[in-house]
Every structure is written in C-alpha cells, then in structure tokens.
Amino acid sequence: MSTIPANPDHTPDSAESAARTTRVQRNRTRHPRMLGGDPVRRLDKPVISLTDQVLNNAGQAKHTLAPKRKPKWMRAKLPGGPGYHALRDIMETHSLHTVCEEAGCPNMGECWARGVATIMILGDTCTRACGFCNVKTGKPPVYDEDEPRRVAESLALMGLKHVVITSVNRDELPDGGAAIWAETVIRAREACPDMSIEVLIPDFEGNWDALQLVIDAQPEILNHNLETVPRMYPAVRPQAKYDQSMELLKRCRDAGLVTKTGIMVGIGERDDEVLELMDDIQSSAQTHILTIGQYLQPTPNHLPIDRFVEPVVFERFKDQGLARGFRVVESGPMVRSSYHADMQVEELHGKDRQSFNTVQELMGKSTT
After folding, report:
1. What's the number of CA atoms in the CB half-sphere (13 Å) around residue 189?
2. Prediction pTM value
3. Local structure of residue 330 (DSSP, 8 states)
4. How far, in Å, CA of 236 to CA of 268, rounded?
5. How far apart are CA 137 and CA 37, in angstroms?
6. How far apart are the two ends of the chain, measured CA to CA in Å?
7. Nearest residue to 289 via CA among 237, 250, 337, 350
8. 3-state class of 163 per DSSP?
9. Are 64 and 52 a contacting pair, CB within 8 Å?
10. Cβ-contact 123, 173 below 8 angstroms
11. What is the pLDDT of residues 183-237, one digit of tens each?
C-alpha cells in the first residue's frame, strides 16, 4: 500500500522525544472547556436530562456510574514501528492534523504502522459539541487557505492508493469550509493521480450549494456518518439533524457518487433500532457502504457506554446489512468509519489490491 521506506533500526532521538513531550502537553491542554461540551444542551426543553443520572459533567452528577471493564475482544495495538514513525514525521513536517490523534482512535497504531491515516483538514477545533467525540470544541482560531497545498504535498510523499480526508465542523464559515474541501480534493488528485479519494464530510448545516462544491470535486467515495439511530440524536448529535444528514446522503447518491455512512453501537440504541436504521438508509438514500463499530467513551465528560456489543451481534448486523442491499458492510467491535477503508474499496469492487486503479474507473460513476 505505502511507499514509505522501512527503517527497522529506528530509535527515538532527543528531537523525537521533545516532539513527543510537546504532543502530550498539547493533548492535556487542548480542551478549553469540558471535553465534549454539554451533550444534552438543547434550545428547546429536553425530552430527558441525563446530567444527574449518568454524566460526570462539571461535578454536577448526583451519582456516577463506574466505568465498564473492557471485554477481552476489545484490544488495540499500541502505536509503533517504522511505518508509524515515518507517517507521523510527514504529518508533523507539513503541520497536518489527523482525526486518528484528535479523536483518540483505538486503531491508530495498526493503521499508521501500515501507512494509512485519515487526514483532518480545517484545523483541530470543532464548532460543535457532540456527546461522543473527543475532538476539542471551541472557536477555531485560524482559516488556513494554504492547507490544500500542504495536504497534497504530504499525500504525494505517502504514496497511497487510497486516502480518507475528514474535517471538523466549521459552522462559523458561510460555506462551512466547503471551498477548502473542494480545493483539497482537486489538489490531492493532481498530486496523486493514481490514488482514490474518500471524503468524510460534515453536514454543512444543510447548505446544499456548499455541498455541491464538494460533489463537483468528484471524490471517489463520499462518506457522511449518521453516527446513531434517530432517537439518540438529542444526546449524541445535539447540533445535527437526522433528516438533514439523510438528505445529504441521498443528494450525493443521486449525483452518482459512491456513498458511505457509519454508526456506533453500545451508546444506548437497541438492536431493532439498528435494523430499522438500515432499512431507512436503503429506502431513503440507497447507500453503498455501511460501517458499524463499538462506541468507546473518550473521557468521563462524554456519554457513557451503555453496553459492549458482542462480536456475534456485529456479525449479525453485517449479515442483515448485506441482505438489505448494502454492497459492503464493515461491522465489528474495533471498526471505525475509516478503518480498513482501503480494503473496503477493494471488497466493493472485488479487485485485487495491487491491480485496481480508482473507484471512479471501476464503477464508471454509474452504479444504480
């Protein structure tokens, strides 16, 4: 997959140790307010308040739930190895952010070791405060117009066949950052013509003209995560709208793009609601790819884990998703939206990893 040179003799030097110390300090101070914000904040009267029941927000909880012990099937590899260090050095050299680091993804060690990462554009500060997300919330300090060039240069160095690009929400911008999104895709394709591009985009607050800018840039796969079942939106995605996200997926599918969405389980939904959500996605948006993974609570200030879903249930979800018409279903405890994204492309088309060109060429943008 990657042309990053191996370096089995790599040992940390003083500069690397200093850089690691800087990253640790940044991670400790990067949240100017409570991690995840207030996930039950609503403009109207909430249906139910969780503050005095399960959340540890600002010491206001009347009682606290003990953290659930992770089951044996929840295992993640620690970061390390020559591929990991080489990719990390490229990120730091070009001042790029990754959702892998900012969101505390448990698969970062595995993915980076094989030269796969998810680039996060438009900064590292999100204007929203979702109850599950570890990306810091606040007023973004910068709008970097040079970011698309730096992203394209770094991708050229990585030598990938497939890349995933995502972003924070930038609701303070008139177009939600869509212009930067479009330029990033265009520049990345110019720099890496043999690489397929997957984008994981926000909802742009329902600004369909902004969305069209991204569609016109023609990424090979367009991903927008629903995250959870409709009933859970007030707590999980308080600043998003379920119907709006579904409409986004439909518009992208109607535009001829390969579409993808993902959800978490174990955050309070029921199994029957997951199946109903699959039905709704296929009847409303006919999406190609679905990812389902276990929710993990980033900090005590985020929504608690309701349950650890057993692997056999994830297998059942996969079977049910395929039966409902999804072309690819990635379902498992450690699955995240971008996990095995390159392999999903290959599975979608039934092609050998070494031989496929791009998703656009293989599907002809005409899948129905």
Report:
1. 17
2. 0.72
3. E
4. 10
5. 7
6. 29
7. 337
8. strand
9. no
10. no
11. 999 999 999 998 889 999 999 999 999 999 999 999 989 999 999 999 999 999 9
